[in-house]
Amino acid sequence: MTVQSVDTAQPLALPLARPRESFRLLWRNTRGQRSFVWLVGIAGLLAAVAGLVAPWMIGWLVDVLLAAGVGGAEQTPAAADADAAAGTAGGPGANAPAAAVWWAAAAVAGAGLIAAACAWAGQAWLARAAEPTVAGLREAVMDRALRIGSSRLDGTETGDLVSRVAEDAREVSQAATTVVPLVVQSLFTVVVSAAGLAAVDWRLGLVGLLAIPMYWTTLRWYLPRSGPIYREERAAFGTRASRLLGGITGARTLRAYDAQGPELERIHAASAQARDLSIGVFGFLTRAFSRNNRAEAVVLGAILGAGFLLVSAGYITAGAVTTAALLFHRLFNPIGALVGMFDQVQSAGASLARMAGVVSLPVPERTARLHGGTLELADVSHTYDDGTPALHDVHLTIGPGEVVAVVGTTGAGKSTLAQIAAGLVAPTSGTARLGGVELVEADPGSLREHITMVFQEVHGFATTVAENLRVARPEADRTTLEAALESVGAGWVAHLPQGLDTEVGEGGYRLDPMQLQMLALARVALADPQLVVLDEATAEASSAGARRLDIAAVRVLEGRSGLVVAHRLSQAVAADRILVMSAGRIVETGTHEELRAAGGHYAELSRAWFGG
Ligand SMILES: Nc1ncnc2c1ncn2[C@@H]1O[C@H](COP(=O)(O)OP(=O)(O)OP(=O)(O)O)[C@@H](O)[C@H]1O
Question: What are residue 430's phi and psi, to 5 degrees?
Fold first, then answer.
């Protein structure tokens, strides 16, 4: 049994991590991949810098051509300086403009190749960094989810926890491999191009800054609207899909009643709604981008206007203005992409915060070692987090080798008692001890060695039968596994397609509930604990199967103490003592004969079950 840590002092809702904690967790999980993270950064920076070459070269070319008198333009003083720098001063020869064009073309092509190589390498390195990081993150969440108190897992938080481990991990993983590369590349391009713009001329750089408030206004307009619109569209897609599926699966019934018409109308209505919403989303995106385009047109116009004045005043060359305008133009796509991806980044950030929230849950230190002995529950009461009372002042002692059965109506508190006896749930008041040591303080490994619990719903892990058994004892060899199976009468495993190596669980060989229960009992034999807690372990099987399971349970209990939650009275008859529970209390105690003679609840149940 995997004994989970117990912490009753937790608040009910699973927490969300703050952005800083989320980032720290993410960074911690990049351990081992950091060199790839840096390489991604360097490749992104190089690609962005290589992207500066084209605007720069075109600006230079403009100056060279102007200096050469191509287009009949007059040379400004600043152009003359540039000319000197370009080595074409003193009157260009006939070949100078042509050579400059060739040089510029070669530089642009070279830079393009470098940018492409960097983008390709960056993408490959990012995959190397992101996949193990997200896998580590998922494992960290899973690890914590398995170690926090099982009372939390059984409560209202289960769904939340499952969605954090499954959906949020998928969201983060998708973002890491699709959105993050684009965001990183866009950010580098924006920063490097803006720096390039300021380096060309600080005055033009200042004019370029005008774009920031304009983009900001677009973002403020876009963000609050985008989330609800996309959510509505996704919900409409979901409705359409389920309507279509319902129509297909129910086709025979619809035909039988000749009721296709109304169902088709409903499908049509759902499709029309999804279509209209998609058109609306398209319109919304167009409006968002047109706002961006407006900002870009205004600022580009301002840069050209300011450039005209600066060139006229002789401060800069026409080539510099060309470079500045092209650099500003380079911002358009990445900024558009950043705005478009903002809500995806936000949603991935929210998922990361939810995952980090699980990892931040404290797992209390438990160090006490158990040494076996008598199980003693004293004054035990339990109320679940949602306020449901389950147990009231329960006293129970199970000595070494003693088997106690618990019977009672549904909701009487049997399972709660079993989980407290197994150390899986901490009672809200009172104590549960084994050999004088409190179970809630016992080291999980020590608890696992001494107490094993079998639940009614036995899980078959998607792996081989052998690995399913090794959950209880990882080092067990095949002979040990076979002996354990034999001891519970599960010889049928040898007749499975690949015997112990048969894959079971999701997608594998389908084991029936009785077979799964037998594997669970074989696990108990492998774990070899002092105390076994069986919670309705045979309730699901058919009567023939139930008899075989009863025998297996009796064998597993031989030489051990046991607490058996018995749904069928036949399970309780052989017990040394029987407890009858009602509304969270133990109302009768005794052997089968004593309780029958007493004429109380048990006698009534017994008459109904066995007759007479
Ligand atoms: N995780 C939980 N969160 C909140 N309430 C719970 C939880 N588990 C059980 N309860 C409630 O506690 C009470 C006792 O339940 P428990 O499962 O211990 O009874 P039981 O005798 O084992 O019932 P059954 O035979 O149906 O399994 C019931 O009212 C039940 O609804």
Answer: 90, 180
